[in-house]
Amino acid sequence: MNKAVFLDRDGTINEDVGDFCSIEQLVFIPGAIEALKILQETFQLFIITNQSGVGKNIFTEEELIRFNRYFDIFLKNEGITIKKIYYCPHTKEQHCLCRKPSPYFIRQAEKDYKIDLNSSYVIGDHPHDIEMAKTVGAEAIYILTGHGRKHRKELSIEPNFVCSNLYEAAIWIMESQSSNKKRGLKEGKNG
């Protein structure tokens, strides 16, 4: 079984400038690239993003696919591999099966990539990211970039960790992995 980190995109990896699909508007949050490099040493990386701009006819699904391709190539050029970018093109009012907080895409990744969700993490700046994580038994990390500060009061489910940004989340995850490994070694020796 593989371990994964499921990441929100807008407001987590890149600046959230509303419904956008323009390469010119793409600005990575400081530390995000470094964080992804750290995380991929131990985890498979996935992006799960709600992109209701398609459902609102702000941009087309073809434009979104083109943007995602550019995003993926940019990260590959930085030495980062995203296993898959999952996106929901629907609005909340369309009541689809794939819009976060639905665990639809996480379950898809679990099946397609043999992911152990109990050893995986979800990182995002919105309460629905935390809800999605808890639904599947993954660790939930809430970050304060993007809409994180604004929506923090709306958290109805307590995340495992709240941090300033993706880089801080990556460090916390790696330290947690290290302490879990040490704890496992101690238990193995004493058991």
Key terms:
6 helices; six-stranded parallel sheet; alpha/beta
Walk me through the structure.
The structure is a single chain. The chain has one domain (about 5-190): HAD superfamily/HAD-like (Rossmann fold, 3-Layer(aba) Sandwich). With about 190 residues, it is α/β, with parallel strands linked by helices. The protein has helices at about 30-40, 60-75, 105-115, 125-135, 150, 165-190, and strands spanning about 5, 45-50, 80-90, 120-125, 140-145, 160-165. The protein is built from 6 helices and 6 strands. It has a 6-stranded parallel sheet with strand order 3-2-1-4-5-6, with helices on both faces. Strand 2 (about 45-50), helix 2 and strand 3 (about 80-90) form a beta-alpha-beta unit. Mean pLDDT is about 90; it is low at about 185-190.
Task: Offer a quick outline of the entry.
The chain is 39% helix and 16% strand. It has 191 residues and is α/β, with parallel strands linked by helices.
Beta content comes to 15-25%
Name the average pLDDT: 92
Name of the level-1 CATH class: Alpha Beta
Low-confidence stretches: 185-191
Query: In sequence order, what are the helices and strands, one letter per element?
Result: EHEHEHEHEHEH
Please summarize the sheet with the most strands: 6 strands, parallel
Radius of gyration: 16 Å
Question: Within the CATH hierarchy, at the fold level, what is the topology?
Answer: Rossmann fold
Tell me the domain tally. Answer: 1
Helical coverage, percent range? 25-40%
Describe the protein's topology.
Blueprint (H helix, E strand, L loop, with lengths): L3 E4 L24 H8 L4 E7 L10 H17 L4 E7 L15 H10 L7 E4 L2 H10 L2 E5 L4 H4 L9 E3 L2 H25 L1
Parallel strand pairs: 1-2, 1-4, 2-3, 4-5, 5-6
Helix pairs in contact: 1-6
